[in-house]
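ok new one. same drill as before - structure tokens go in, u give me an amino acid for every spot. 136 of them this time. try not to just spam alanines like last time pls lmao
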């Protein structure tokens, strides 16, 4: 179980990116937490930024798409998370700052306890999660 977190970036108690003592990156958005190894998170964050910006996706097709109402639908495995048009600026800022933190470009704020009451589990190493195959 994850007990010690470094808060990478937070916009609220329910929307943040943190890294635990196992180096797993936890993206919390409202009532959903997505936990990924650092490189998988960076791949996901960069893909989200590309999709929001309307740039060419990492792959020819993607499950992270911007629809006609300027919302973003992100699917990881069987989980579908939809970000409204009003969420996109917050999500973009969160991803940009998290990328900077994980790349070592900005100082992080340490925390001693879990940022939310949820019990989080680290990703087993090596992880069987292959982000690229889920973005196709």
């Amino acid at each position: 179980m994850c007990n010690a977190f470094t808060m990478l970036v937070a916009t609220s108690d329910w929307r943040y990116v943190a890294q635990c003592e196992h180096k797993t990156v936890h993206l919390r958005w409202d009532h959903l937490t997505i936990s990924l190894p650092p490189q998988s998170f960076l791949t996901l964050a960069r893909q989200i930024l590309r999709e929001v910006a309307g740039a060419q996706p990492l792959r020819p097709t993607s499950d992270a798409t911007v629809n006609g109402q300027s919302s973003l639908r992100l699917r990881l495995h069987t989980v579908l998370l939809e970000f409204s048009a009003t969420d996109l600026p917050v999500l973009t800022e969160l991803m940009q700052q998290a990328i900077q933190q994980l790349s070592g470009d900005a100082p992080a704020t340490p925390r001693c306890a879990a940022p939310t009451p949820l019990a989080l589990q680290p990703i087993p190493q090596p992880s069987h999660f292959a982000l690229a195959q889920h973005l196709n």
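The chain has one domain: 5-122. and btw Helices lie at 38-53, 88-102, 131-134.
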